[in-house]
Amino acid sequence: MSRVLVVDDERSLRDTIRDYLTIKGNDVITASDGEEGLKFYEKDNNGLKVLTDVDMPRMNGFELLKEIREINPDAYVIVMSGNDENGEIIKYGASGFIKKPFEFRDLEKLINGYEE
User: Fold this and answer.
1) E-assigned strand segments in 11-95
2) Can you give the CATH number for the domain in which 56 is found?
3) Which of 75, 93, 100 has its CA nearest to residue 13?
4) 78-112 residue pLDDT tens
5) How far apart are CA 11 and CA 66, in angstroms?
6) Residue 62 near residue 33, CB atoms below 8 Å
7) pLDDT tens-digit profile of 28-71?
8) Three-state DSSP class for 15?
9) CA dist., res. 61 & res. 35, Å (int)
10) Are 79 and 94 in contact (CB under 8 A)?
11) Which residue, 26, 30, 34, 35, has most beta carbons within 10 Å?
12) DSSP type of residue 87
């Protein structure tokens, strides 16, 4: 399936997403904020898809998206947020947006790019 970097400061959600995507056959790495996620991305981004929350301490999802785009303009970055207005992040280069709370099957469709 896919290599996925999940970046979210909410540990329970991050772990739940990791567990679900792993069960579905994905190789999942997690980071607790944008700075940690960026460090991992800089080190090993070959074929890596990114799922990031918007509202995080230290480096938010908008900043992380910008930094990742500077490294790889073609990076696959999905942004998640509880705020509808953050759907506007598509205009800033996100590959997709999913509003919290979401159905895990909808997240899986975004990550692996398929329709049921």
Assistant:
1) 27-31, 48-53, 76-81
2) 3.40.50.2300
3) 100
4) 999 988 766 677 778 899 999 999 999 999 999 98
5) 23
6) no
7) 999 999 999 999 999 999 999 999 999 999 899 999 999 999 99
8) helix
9) 10
10) yes
11) 34
12) G
42/68 Cα distance (integer angstroms) = 8
Give the total number of structural domains in the chain. Answer: 1
pLDDT band at 115 (very low <50, low <70, confident <90, very high): very low
pTM as predicted? 0.93
Q: How far is it, in rounded angstroms, from Cα 95 to Cα 71? A: 15
Distance CA 95, CA 76 (A): 6
How many residues are given for the chain?
116
Pair of tokens at residue 52: 């990031």
Domain range for 71: 3-112
CA 86 to the chain's CA centroid: 14
Judge contact between 75 and 64, C-beta under 8 A: no
